[in-house]
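Supplementary Methods S3. Input chains for the assembly prediction are listed below.
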Amino acid sequence: MAGWRQLAASLVNDRALRARALAFAGAAFVALALGYVLPNPALAALAFRRCGYFILAAAFGGFGWVMFQLLRARLRFPAASAWRRAVPIVLALGALLWLALVSEPAGYKVTNDEFVLQATALDLHLRREPAVLVRAYDIEGAFTPLLAYTDKRPFFFPFVLTLVHDLTGYREANAFLLNAALAAASLALVFVLARRLAGNSAAALAAVVLWGGLPLFVQNATGSGMELLNVVMLAVVMLLAWEYLAAPDERRASALVLASVLLAQTRYESAVFIPLAGVVLLAGWRVAQRPILPWSAVAAPLLMLPYAWQNHFTNANRALWELHASQESRFDVGYLARNLQEAGRFFFTWQDRMLANSWLLSVAGASALLAAAAWALRRWRAWRIDQPGCVVALYALGVLANLGLLMFYYWGQLTDPVAERLSLPSLMIAALALAWALGRIVARGFDARWAVGAAAIYVVGVMRPQIANHYYTQFNPAPHEVAWEENFLRQRPPMERLIITNKTVLPWIIDLQPAVMLKYMPGEREQLRFHLGAGTFGEIIVTQKLIPSTRDGDYVVDPADALPRDFKLEVLAERRFNAMIDRISRLVAVGDDPPAGNKTAAVAPAPRSAAVVALHQPHEIAQAAVDGIAQLRGRHAVDQD
Amino acid sequence: MSFATINVPPRRVLLAVLIGALAVLLGFFTFSANQALAVVTYGGYWVILTTIVLFGAMLVRIAREWWRGWHFSWRAAGFAAAVVACGILLQVHEPRGFKILMDEIMLLGSSMSLHLDKTPLVPLRGNDLQGAFQLLSGMLDKRPLFFPVLLSIMHDLTGYRPANAFWLNSALTFVFLGLMFLLGRRLAGARGGILAVLLMTSLPLLGQNATGGGFELLNIVMQVAVILLGIRYLERKDDLSLSAFCLGGVLLAQVRYESVLFILPVAAVVAWSWWREREVRLPWPVLLCPLLLVIYPLQNRVFDVRTQSWELSSQPGYEKVFSPAYISDNVGHALNFFFDLSGDAPNSPLLVIAGLIAVPFFLLTLAKKLRAGRATAPTDVALACFGAGFLALAGLLLCYFWGKFDDPVIRRLSLPLHVFMVIATVAVLREVRLSPKGWNGLIVAGIAFIFAWSIPVMARHAYTLQYVHAREVAWREDFIARHPTRDFVVIDNSSIIWITHEVSSTPMAQARARKDAIDFLLRNHSFSAIYVFQRFEIDPVTHREKPEKDEDLSNDFALETVEERRLKPLSITRISRVVAVKPGAVQPADAREAEDFAKLTPEEREKLRQKYFENWLQHLP
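Predicted structure tokens for the full assembly:
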């Protein structure tokens, strides 16, 4: 086998290869300069918004083309015996998918993440800009975007979602359909990987049953987040790396590189898999005994430019970090102890209805990982990255490194309903490790069907009640509040509406409904009065939160949601969510001048039957907690059209 | 030949004896009543699930064998079409709904808890606390667990909805008719099968239960399935058939209380086979059967803990649950039901006349055939054993204090006896050796009877509509459908109905006792509305309405009528909204703290919110 020195020599001596290597170095240099060095954050954001979609589209198009070529060469109509073997597996995977999709209603699970992704996809669909649409009006019959801000979230998921919008027409539900399809893909890919690791279908199925029966998987399969795309892309990259090392060539290398570029732009931390792709690429050189450097690898640094621009901009804008008031940095050793404690609780709690975890998957997976580590250490001299199976171990290390990094993150408590989903890649690796371990045991005569049975019993007996209750989803009131408000307004006569919301405007915008934030309305008195008088909107709707003011209740309007007393409101509906009440009112009139004085509002309890309620509130409304969207809007904007 | 010549595998038999002794010990002597209920609560699901899985595995193996020998024929397709057509006929004349109260709601409640917690508790309290409807307390029901577990599996597979009970019964209708065809064919050829299906289809009672949410369909499905498996076992004498037969018997015993009687025919068939083959066979699933039955006696301890479970108080004048003294009265009620020609009862005079004529001949024929000893045909042995089982069941029901078949709630108990009469009819017709033309004539007569009698009776379904409680449940479901947010609470003595539909509810007595809580919830807009579901009787002379017993909410509440219906003469059922708790009924709330609220920091407000939330929990109905 050629040594590294010989490989380097052939890279230098071969003219075509040398040109490509030089081009790669040039591209890397240009990417670094254009991505980080030359532009200031504002310029980086502008470049991201103007060019991001097209660069990602080029990467995606290239990936699609290479995959088409790869699959075309391999796809054969299966023989009858293969069909017979496949039918039970397909039925089992289909059953797992069915169970996942019927267990929770499709809806938003992690707010505001999922709203932001939807709004980004909408802007991509309407203007080809990866920005979060926060202001848009129906002007002369057309829903016209007016203001968007650059978000921190990598935008491969919105990109794929916008493709679905492009091909089928815009609708909110496309995000849920996309995730349902990704759930199917993830089950199939995990099975394929597990089958390769275990060398046995039953052992692989046992691992997939635990993966498909994971409440967190079910939650994301029925949500609109980017987590499933992340694990799907991770599995795709692992499979492509395996394929590449098994038979290294330019086409497989291209597929691996482009898939890695897309994976890196799925979630923030997935960029860690880019260096791993480099390691695999180089390992393939040794297997092939020649350097392999396709044009896609040369272009890869340039294809990563959107990530660099977005990262550059995000780093410069603390508002996007969403730090809590007492926190200074995103990563710190000070967060480690609590994060470790919560991670332990998340992974190894037997049954806690508030957690979307799977004790058996965590315990069996962790045991299998330890066994794999011991097995690898015993054979460390023979351990070679260029063995296809080892590639999974390499990516497992990448995933575990990400998990380790998360332990230093300020919002890395895995028991937090918003942070739980960050454990999905680790749990997928746990499932794969379990398949590997079962494969080793099967080789010693164990019948893996017992493992399938045990996994099925655990899923039916322990996971299904957890999934049936899905408290981890249901206890988040925000999506319920938004859904109730939308349903309530849908039942009213159709007309032009402006929503003044105490929450984020995004759920309304992605429903193509103009909306503005309540906290800025005292300053928009003139505009509101003008449009009330002009009849621009059939009605202006205001949503507010009522909170208990005593131990006995006596609800009052939350001071953060209060409006000046000359804003006349007519209460339309109220509904309790947890210990809070969500109120929908209609803005009836706005006074000429702000009321004198700065007195604290009486925050009077809301009489249910009152037709018109005057809410006398202080002008200086207590500022709400840091809200990235709000911070960027209007007079606080750092980046706007 | 005596039993001494039977080949007995000593280890297996010893193991069986030990397992049997252990089962008896666990079932009857180890646990106190409360411990027994705890065992059923936490282990019942798993035992039934294990039995279902084992039984399912046996059926899959049997189906595989059958599949290997199966080939398409237009004749078989025609029979299948006939079965499907009859099944559809039973489905289309009545709307799906709960027909027998509170039985069907209790079963649904158990399945709900099984789905959510894997514990078979009927939910007594449930509320939307933090965005999710949570069951807060429940009680173990007296009804055996097989149906609720099956229904909970359906919830697991498709998501929870009360209507799943109806869809399960719809599916079971087709299974039942298919099994009746197979049994009839076994007895008297394909025409016998068709006649058996037609006779069952002629019974409107079957249609009522096919569109309801009860466990009657599953009961007769299991009865016919076990008979068929018994015949298969006697014919094949293999371990697979024996295991399927015994596991089927175990499941049958756990569908309805009295179905445990059928353990005896199952045991008799197995004993007969051992005696005939001179060999005791005990495959491991059969060895497990006693342990799989332990749940039944343990759950039966409900009757020790809650003696009112016998519901003696519902029928004034009765002191014993079972007594031979009830037979004469119950026979009168049975004849009243069987031969009611008003069209208001879900009966089938044709089936009953044919059955009552056939049963004595059926018994005489079997007695004659059994004299052949070991040479008796397998079908006849199975029929003899299960015929005895059906007769014992009839005897038990006639000795039951509430065994009146003309009672709207009790009619359904006659379903197994109808099945028995159909079996007897077809078996006797086999002995008559009818020509094909004769069979065809009977089939035509059966179809004519269905069109002349059964369809008009089912179309009117007076027997369902006259049952006010079922119509009230349908009204409640309609009300819930019109208020899909389900963010209201209902004061109703049948609170379980609302809770199983994921609506908060509490009984009248609780509301009367907790006026302060109702006032608290009203003041704080905790629910979009507080409704009351009440029944009033109208005085025929004064025309004044008066709440029925236990339906009076007291004068401390101001109510506003929302909807009301007259579901029977001199009675009104009303849904009202609680507008206020009248002044003086509760202490006024102290509003002092509100004045300082605006000065509180966000942390202090959060603490206050938590205090309120705890207080709110205490005030929940």
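Chain A touches chain B through 45 residues (CB under 8 Å). Strands of chain A lie at 132-139, 142-149, 497-501, 515-517, 539-550, 553-557, 567-577, 580-590, 613-614.
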